[in-house]
Specification:
This protein has one domain. Strands 2, 3, 4, 6, 7, 10, 12 and 13 form an 8-stranded antiparallel sheet that branches. A 5-stranded antiparallel sheet has the order 5-8-9-1-11. With 328 residues, it is α+β, with helices and mostly antiparallel strands. Helices cover 21% and strands 32% of the residues. The relative contact order is 0.21. It has 9 helices and 13 strands.
């Protein structure tokens, strides 16, 4: 599995929309967060008349044999609320009530062989218990709490030809919830957020679902992906790693080498966001520093960015080819 390349892409997917510019909790843009890859508890879905998903399904094609090994990693964000009991003389701007941060989670069933999956699907249950942490920070006592989440991953395989297999990964949220009629913010505390699946193969290779070989187009079109968009990851031509993303990507996605770090806003560009960060007032910057560790890192990195690094954000031209002379 090509983890070096997939990690940077997966991180971008994981934190897409984590905190949007201008990176302040009081910003209207940050009142409706966590819109990608949300897998709700089944009981909440039922209470919402099936309007919200409680599962995610990835199906892909593997060229290999019965001894081919499949690696599976499911990643998501587990939200936690952050509340502060402020010191009497230092609070300048209160956080929104129950400001939501996130903890990264990863679930990795043991490596599987296609032969084993053909005999019997694997069902892997997992759980992360509730927990409360209290810490003394500069501006007061900070309490962080996350609720219990329970889930199940089912992995199965179907033989389609002599050396062709369809692999299915089904991720389901079975967390017990206290109040199935709770509002979305309350339900999010027991959701899998920004959920995505990373797959690797040893002794085989994945088939692109975006550009399958002509002879495999029909079977590729039969793969049913729900809430997931599987693409090849790595250097062009490598086929040992697949990322099933909750947002639409293309095969072999890349992070621009000029990018100095995460900005959590994939619909913008680094130069524009960095310029806007530089125009924030001292009061707005103070709110950022007091609100969230990841937002504070964005601010500190931008303010410390050397001029030559900033100039690289202005743009780059790639993949240019000479035009063929028209001889007609």
């Amino acid at each position: 599995m090509n983890l070096a390349r997939v990690d940077e892409i997966a991180k971008a997917v994981l934190y897409e929309g984590y905190m949007l510019y201008p990176y302040r909790p009081s910003s209207v843009k940050n009142r409706q967060r966590w819109n990608f890859g949300v897998v709700y508890p089944q009981a909440y879905r039922e209470a919402q008349d099936g309007e919200e998903p409680c599962s995610m399904q990835t199906e892909c094609l593997v060229s290999g044999n019965r001894a081919t090994i499949l690696e599976v990693k499911v990643r998501f964000l587990h939200l936690q609320t952050r509340t502060m009991r402020s010191s009497a003389d230092v609070r300048t701007r209160p956080l929104p009530d129950g400001w939501q941060e996130a903890v990264e989670r990863e679930v990795s069933p043991a490596d599987l062989t296609l032969e084993g999956l053909l005999l019997e699907p694997l069902r892997h249950a997992f759980a992360f218990p509730s927990q409360t942490q209290t810490n003394s920070e500069r501006d007061g006592i900070v309490e962080r709490r996350h609720e219990v989440v329970d889930g199940a991953i089912t992995v199965s395989a179907e033989r389609l030809g002599e050396n062709l297999f369809k692999v299915s990964i089904h991720v389901k949220n079975v967390s017990p919830i206290k109040n199935s009629s709770a509002d979305r913010d309350a339900a999010l505390m027991q959701c899998f957020v920004s959920t995505h699946t990373i797959l690797g193969v040893k002794g085989g290779e994945f088939v692109s679902l975006l550009e399958p070989p002509p002879e495999l187009q029909d079977v590729a079109s039969c793969c049913q992906n729900v809430g997931a968009w599987p693409v090849l990851v790595g250097e062009h031509g490598q086929r040992d790693t697949l990322l099933a993303s909750p947002i639409i990507l293309y095969d072999y996605p890349q992070i621009a080498p000029e990018s100095p770090g995460d900005l959590f806003d994939g619909t913008e560009i680094d130069e524009i966001l960095s310029l806007r960060i530089m125009t924030l007032t001292d009061e707005e910057k103070r709110e950022i520093r007091e609100s969230d560790d990841r937002a504070r890192q964005i601010l500190d990195r931008t303010e410390a960015m050397p001029v030559e690094q900033f100039m690289k954000l202005h743009g780059a031209m790639r993949g240019l080819r000479p035009l063929k002379e028209d001889i007609s």
